[in-house]
Write a structure and sequence with these properties.
It is a single chain. This protein is an alpha+beta fold. It folds into two domains: 88 residues; 230 residues, 2-Layer Sandwich (BirA Bifunctional Protein, domain 2), CATH 3.30.930.10. Helix content is 41%, strand content 19%. It is built from eleven helices and nine strands. It has a seven-stranded mixed sheet with strand order 1-4-5-9-8-7-6, sandwiched between helices. Strands 2-3 form a two-stranded antiparallel sheet. β6 and β7 form a beta hairpin. It starts with a helix and ends with a helix. It binds phenylalanine. The site of phenylalanine (PHE) has 11 residues, from β8 and β9.
């Protein structure tokens, strides 16, 4: 009996080792633990043994039984793991994500407009001349015929620093003085772009910080016709080949004569609409012939030299070009606005 039990244990363990699937496990379980399984039959046989052999045989039989049960569980676990590993290997999915594309930024609409303006004037022979945003009263005003108590200072009121006579420039015109002093006595053509500041009641058309692009051409026989030709060429390259300009007399202390240039309305073509307030014209810039005293302040002799100057607001230009209705959008940093100009 004991011999049989040990043999059965060895055989059962051997068979178990070879099993690799669930069906094999079930067959093995039935073969040993089933109603007519080998172990079940052996256990039943113990009752028929002589009484003195029964305890020992019972003891061993229980040991064999629990050893086989433990072996079965172990094998079951191994088979389960192998099956899982195989399933994973077969149904393996590619868990690599494609790379995240870096989101590329783009230029602010003001910068885009400025660069368009630079391109057009570059073709007309103007190069970019940069000058300071923090100016002194003398260059921002006095050199441009705006002495301390000049009434026209009102429309160019600005932010002052704690340093007396030092302020944030209200227009790019003081750059005229810097450029002339750098280039005299040569003729030259420059545009002067940059930020300007004003003490303003902020509205849809006015901000306390904005860009300007100044233009300045100095030479020996420069006339108002040159000014008109250059500005007309600019308007046509910026807004379309059929654009027309008109010049209205105006006043700036640093130009004489002075004018304001209007362009026929890009929306209605001159018929009159809401954008042009029924006039058919849109104001785009101020301009004029450089005042003799300003030429002198820059180092040029007005009997020999003349020049023209103009100043435009690129935000205004962009507003007309893209139908933007409020200048405050430019510096409000609202992505809903900025993303419309990729
Ligand atoms: N500086 C003037 C302004 O800010 C514009 C201008 C520039 C006018 C050059 C004439 C000549 O309004």
């Amino acid at each position: 009996m004991l011999e049989e039990l040990y043999q059965l244990e060895a055989k059962a363990k051997n068979e178990l080792e070879a099993i690799t699937d669930v069906e094999g496990l079930e067959a093995w379980r039935l073969a040993y633990f089933g109603k007519k399984g080998a172990l079940t039959m052996l256990l039943r046989g113990i009752g028929k043994l002589p009484a003195e052999e029964r305890p020992q045989a019972g003891n061993i039989a229980n040991q064999v039984k629990s050893a086989l049960e433990a072996a079965f569980e172990q094998r079951q676990e191994a088979v389960r793991r192998a099956a899982l590993a195989e399933e994973l290997a077969q149904g393996a999915m590619d868990v690599r994500l494609p790379g995240r594309p870096p989101s590329l930024g783009y230029l602010h609409i003001s910068t885009q407009t400025l660069r368009e303006i630079y391109d057009i004037f570059a073709r007309l022979g103007f190069h970019v001349f940069r000058s300071r945003e923090v100016e002194d009263d003398v260059t921002n005003f006095q050199m441009l015929n705006l002495p301390p108590d000049h009434p026209a200072r009102d429309m160019w009121s600005t932010f002052y620093t704690t340093e007396p006579g030092v302020l944030l420039r209200t227009h790019t015109s003081p750059g005229q003085i810097h450029a002339m002093r750098k280039y005299h006595p040569e003729p030259f053509r420059v545009i002067l772009p940059g930020k300007c500041y004003r003490y303003e009641q902020v509205s849809t058309r006015h901000e306390h910080m904005f860009f300007q692009v100044e233009g300045l051409a100095i030479g020996k026989h420069i006339t108002m016709a040159d000014l008109k030709g250059v500005l007309e060429s600019f308007a046509r390259q910026m807004f379309g080949a059929n654009r027309r300009l008109r010049f209205r007399p105006s006043y700036f202390p640093f130009t004489e004569p002075s004018a304001e240039a209007d362009m026929d309305c890009i929306l209605c073509g001159g018929e009159g609409c809401q954008i042009c307030k029924q006039t058919g014209w849109l104001e785009i810039l101020g301009c004029g012939m450089v005042h003799p005293q300003v030429l002198r302040n820059g180092g040029y002799d007005p009997d020999e030299y003349s020049g023209f100057a103009f100043g435009m607001g690129p935000e205004r230009i962009a507003m007309l070009k893209h139908g933007i209705t409020d200048i405050r959008y430019f510096f409000a940093n609202d992505l809903r606005f900025l993303q419309q100009f990729p």
